[in-house]
Amino acid sequence: MSLWDATSEEPEVEPVPVPDQVVDVAVVGGGFTGLSAALHCAERGLSAHVLEARRVGYGGSGRNVGLVNAAAWLPPAKIRERLGPDQGERFLRRFSEAPSVVFDLIERLQIRCEVTRTGTIHAAHGPSGWDDLKGRHAEWQRLGEPVDLLGREEVAEMVGTTAFHGGLLDHRAGTINPMGYCRGLARAALAAGARISTGVRVRKLDRENGTWRARTCAGDVRAKAVVLGTNAYTDELWPGLRDVFTIIHYLQFATEPLGPDADHVLPGRQGVWDTGPIMFNFRRDAHDRLLIGTMGRVIGSRDKGLTRRWAERQIARVFPELGSVAFDEAWHGQIAMTPDHLPRIHQLAPRLWTAIGYNGRGITTGTLFGGAIADLLTGMDPEDLPLPMTEPSRAPRARITSRIYDLAFTANQLWKGIR
Predict the structure, then answer these.
(1) Helix, strand or coil for residue 383?
(2) Exposed end of the chain (fewer CB within 10 Å): N or C?
(3) d(Cα 77, Cα 88) in Å, to the nearest integer?
């Protein structure tokens, strides 16, 4: 499924049958959001049961890049512009703290997920990217956040390549093995009293006499409340929900362990992503593999095909001194992009919530929103959410746009694979 699936120190959880009694909360989806919601609900004394169609972490959570980033893709000024000064400041404050929320959970629950807390680097792909980063840096400085502006030579020293024009080092951030984190959340949720059924797809949701009935392939589950934690892997279970975002595929290629030959590449183990319109990222894992990725699907396999050629060319461009490398794994997952690049929390019906549209910030957003929904279920005022609850609205031409992006990203691989 992914490198993270193969290398996670946290084992897969043992599934249990669907419950035959009414539970407080039925959680659809066994990724960051669903498991965070189940964990926090169970810790607050609610009976929570997770219903996962495949297995824990099968969707975007187990295919994630593993960058624990703060805030959103948008610069702070854009967030305030779109949410207003008060809500914008609240969002920035809560999402600036989000990496600490994740890291504190990892420490408290002793999750084995190759965690580093040395930051991440947003690298300028060219002069326009450098101008954008300078503007972001000024905003973060105004807010008093620990984000440093790095010149070209500083980035080259930290990253191990002269390919970038500068960068932002975000000290709040870090990296993890995302599948390890996901399985660790599952383990902790079980220990707190939650239950998890895998291989159980929810086919329909009905409300009868104030209770939800989740009709599954393994029987019906009755619950006082429901949380949909499916994000980019949302299907047709709730009519229209699949169309509130555009799907973007994101791929990763992982080399075999490179050993001392790669000691100069990210010696601090930061994760890197660039400012290019079709984003490019790379990082090292705990076993000295180099992982690189971009928007799009894997076309071919780790051994041959278009994406393999793209990966070889990108490593040769950024780290030519590494020479020819062999690859261990190749995979892709899905990202849910909203029109304004901000996530959403929706109440779809009485006592039925979803958090959706993470725009490439799944680790922090899923963790934060899962906990926030648990707070709602135990009496929190909706005004205290990290951002306002909204009604679902369709993203214009979402499915057509997804296909257009897919074609563009394939063309990008083709172009950069032959240059």
Answers:
(1) helix
(2) C
(3) 9
Place of tokens 């660790």: 184
Identify which of 284, 282, 288 has the alpha carbon closest to the alpha carbon of residue 269: 284
Q: Is the distance from CB of 150 to CB of 171 less than 8 angstroms?
A: no
Q: Show the 3-state SS of 92-104.
A: HHHHHCHHHHHHH
Kindly give, in sequence order, each residue whose CB lies less than 8 Å from that of residue 180, ignoring residues fewer than 6 positions away.
Answer: 4, 7, 8, 9, 10, 111, 112, 113, 114
3-class SS string, 266-306? CCCCCEEEECCCCCEEEEECCCCCEEEEEECCCCCCCCCCH
Helices (H) and strands (E) in the chain, counts: 12, 18
Using CA atoms, how far apart are residues 375 and 227, in angstroms rounded to an integer? 12
DSSP 118-169: S-EEEE-SSHHHHHHHHHHHHHHHHTT--EEEE-HHHHHHHHS-S--S-EEE
Please state, in angstroms and rounded to a whole number, the distance separating the CA atoms of residues 49 and 189. 10
Distance CA 188, CA 215 (A): 27
Instruction: In whole angstroms, give the CA distance from residue 17 to residue 198.
Output: 9
The SS3 assignment for 253 reads strand
Per-residue pLDDT tens over the stretch 101-154: 999 999 999 999 999 999 999 999 999 999 999 999 999 999 999 999 999 999
Q: What is the DSSP letter of 116?
A: B
Q: Report how far apart, in Å, the C-alpha atoms of 71 and of each of 138, 230, 327, 361 are.
A: 15, 21, 32, 8
Among candidates 321, 93, 291, which has minimal Cα distance to 176?
Answer: 291
pLDDT-derived band at 181 (thresholds 50, 70, 90) equals: very high
pLDDT tens digit sequence for 19-63: 999 999 999 999 999 999 999 999 999 999 999 999 999 999 999
Least confident of 6-15, 72-81, 177-186, 245-254: 72-81
Give whole-number Cα distances, 395 to 240, 241, 342, 400, in Å.
Answer: 10, 10, 12, 11
Residue 197: beta bridge partners? 51
Go through the chain and tell me how many residues it has.
Answer: 419
pTM here?
0.96
